[in-house]
Specification:
This protein is mainly beta and 297 residues long. Helix content is 14%, strand content 35%. Helix 1 crosses helix 3.
């Protein structure tokens, strides 16, 4: 049995406060109300409170239930659907904040506790924060943390460039928005490359634009953006190379002159120049674009 997960358990007995569930290796049809509790590693079994018991339930039925602990630290079951499972991330709304921590709405009757030490700033009632669910080793309770970068990194990258990924926006930065990638890695959506508004706690389909040598991951929301920016950036880079490492164009240059010289729109030129700059291939100065290194992949 796993706390914070759904478990398939059998109904072992009914009582006035609900029914007790447990693992049963035999034939479920052989279960009677006097099954020896010693056969169950949890003794009396796990309580499914009466409010979740339906008239159609009978002894031996297998139920898919979520396990957590109640206010008295007893393991209990629920048929409710939590908004987050163990070792996963989800956007949760803050219901209340106390001196010891915050309480989040995670879809169950008992709110999820986020200790004060596990909170980032601006945790206030009514706000939404991305929360990671984990099992505290000392208390053996399910708790949450909003300190996302303490529990996820890019030490092991499980995505590839141009791969379609599921993104969860968790933090705004001066450059854009940080996102959790497939519940495994983190990356950045650059503000200058966004074609729509995003908010903390939103899920988006996205694409891996680039994986850097320092293991940072650049993201975009549109695969066409990846292809167009990469091809135009390479064309711009080659043009700068052919001009001995300098072209007298910048973001204030005339759009028609840019189109005539590079064969691309000013918007595409700016994105391409920005891409090269982020890759540390060029410098952008008042007189134009200057080459830094010799090659581009």
């Amino acid at each position: 049995m796993e706390l914070g997960e759904f478990n398939k358990l059998h109904i072992l007995r009914f009582r006035s406060n609900g029914c007790y569930l447990g693992e049963f290796d035999g034939n479920p049809e052989d279960i009677t109300d006097d099954v020896d509790p010693a056969e169950n590693p949890f003794g009396e079994g796990v309580l499914l409170p009466q409010r979740y018991v339906t008239e159609s339930m009978k002894l031996g039925d297998e139920l898919n239930v979520f396990l957590y602990t109640d206010s008295e630290d007893r393991i209990v079951a629920t048929t409710e659907q939590p908004k987050v499972l163990l070792h996963e991330f989800a956007p949760l709304e803050v219901k209340s904040v106390t001196a010891v921590g915050a309480f989040m709405d995670w879809g169950l009757s008992k709110d999820l506790f986020v200790p004060y030490a596990e909170q980032t700033k601006n945790v206030k009632a009514g706000n939404t924060h991305v929360v990671f669910l984990y099992l505290d080793a000392e208390t053996e309770r399910l708790v949450g943390t909003t300190k996302i970068e303490n529990v996820i990194d890019n030490e092991e990258i499980i995505v590839a460039e141009k791969e379609e990924v599921k993104l969860l926006i968790y933090k705004e930065t001066p450059l854009g928005y940080k996102a959790i990638i497939n519940n495994e890695n983190v990356g950045l959506l650059y503000r200058t490359e966004l074609n729509k508004t995003v908010q903390i706690g939103e899920y988006h389909k996205g694409f891996v634009k680039k994986i850097r040598e320092d293991r940072k991951i650049d993201l975009v929301l549109d695969i066409q953006g990846v292809e167009i920016i990469e091809s135009s950036a390479k064309a711009l880079y080659q043009k700068i190379q052919s001009e001995n490492g300098f072209v007298p164009f910048h973001d204030k240059s005339d759009p028609q002159e840019i189109r005539d010289y590079f064969g691309m729109s000013k918007k595409t030129f700016k994105k391409a120049a920005g891409s090269l700059y982020k890759q540390h291939l060029i410098e952008i100065k008042e007189d134009g674009l200057h080459l830094i290194i010799e090659d581009i992949d």
